[in-house]
Automatic annotation (TrEMBL):
Residues 23-277 form the EAL domain. It comes from Pontibacterium sinense. Transmembrane segments: none annotated. It comes from the Bacteria. This is cyclic-guanylate-specific phosphodiesterase.
């Protein structure tokens, strides 16, 4: 029995060392990736079904690893958040999205909106607002064309500070959206204190909307309350015609999901902008 105990603890120690080493390895690799410009933004169309046109796109980061290929954000964003590296990565994302928007505007894509994901730590930086304003100014883009996505849990964690920050950004004309809406615990009446433009209904609800009456009811309720509060609603993760039709019958106007398009490299966006997304 004694031996077993020792083996057991040796096993655990080695296990922890391995993970620690993996983490340190990944952390170093992330630093390197930022310096070597191995990150790239993909863009996923956001479609307005009243016109069947793409009105904007969400920027989604990818790590183009020289050996491993394309690494999705879920594999490195959490560690970047833990280590604080997300602040630098997030700044790169904003800068890069704004430069892209500038280029698209020069190509004649008027009114196009780019949505960018933010992290809690990034928003908590004391110079976050001035950073954003500087980037916008430097790229010469209209603030209304930039949409910042924050999750519900992110703003609830540090509500008073976040309200202040978002108010400043909103006064500058930027759009603010709540991502993954419905997964947190906030009430819409509470959210009314935030300067919001749009709610993004989490894809876990949209996914099951045609099978699960509870999810259908949640979507319906979010849409009607959001409209009463003068907020736009976008459904994320829309994969089927049935999901789209049901959401549409509830009054949802904006859509993002594989049904319309996967996230694509920036170079593919101008052609999609011309397309009609009739489904
Ligand atoms: P998110 O903000 O909820 O982004 C939507 C995710 O859903 C994307 O995954 C997108 O590819 C995926 N998706 C879109 N349509 C569909 C669909 O129809 N079906 C399904 N099953 N999935 C769909 P992705 O690109 O892997 O990003 C995952 C998460 O990583 C994002 O979730 C976001 O939280 C985070 N992320 C991505 N880019 C950034 C970034 O630049 N900064 C920060 N802080 N986080 C980012
Ligand atoms: Ca998002
Ligand atoms: Ca989301
Ligand atoms: Ca989600």
């Amino acid at each position: 029995a004694k031996d077993n105990g020792r083996n057991c603890s040796q096993f655990f120690t080695r296990g922890i060392d391995d993970t620690l080493q993996e983490r340190i390895g990944l952390e170093n690799a992330l630093h390197h990736a930022l310096k070597q410009q191995q990150f790239q933004l993909y863009y996923q169309p956001q479609v307005d079904v009243s016109s069947n046109k793409m009105i904007g796109a969400e920027a989604l980061i990818r790590w183009i690893h020289p050996e491993k290929g394309i690494i999705p954000p879920d594999a490195f964003i959490p560690l970047a958040e833990e280590t604080g590296l997300i602040v630098d990565i997030g700044r790169w994302v904003l800068e890069s999205a704004c430069q892209q928007l500038r280029a698209w505007t020069d190509q004649g894509m008027d009114g196009f909106v780019v949505s960018v994901n933010l992290s809690a730590l990034q928003v908590q930086q004391p110079d976050f607002v001035s950073d954003v304003c500087q980037i916008i100014k430097r790229c010469g883009i209209q603030p209304e064309r930039l949409d910042l996505e924050l999750t519900e849990s992110m703003i609830m964690r540090n509500a008073e500070e976040t309200i202040k920050t978002l108010k400043q950004l909103s006064e500058q004309g930027l759009q603010i959206s709540i991502d993954d809406f419905g997964t947190g615990y906030s009430s819409l009446s509470y959210l009314k204190r935030f300067p919001l433009d749009k709610l993004k209904i989490d894809r876990s609800f949209v996914n099951d909307i045609t099978n699960d009456p509870d999810d259908a009811m949640i979507c319906r309720t979010i849409i009607s309350m959001a409209h009463n509060l003068n907020l736009k609603v976008i459904a994320e993760g829309v994969e089927t015609n049935e999901q789209q039709a049901l959401m549409r019958s509830y009054g949802c106007e904006l859509y993002q999901g594989y049904l319309f398009s996967r996230p694509v490299p920036a170079s593919e966006i101008p052609a999609l902008r011309e397309r009609s997304f009739e489904v």
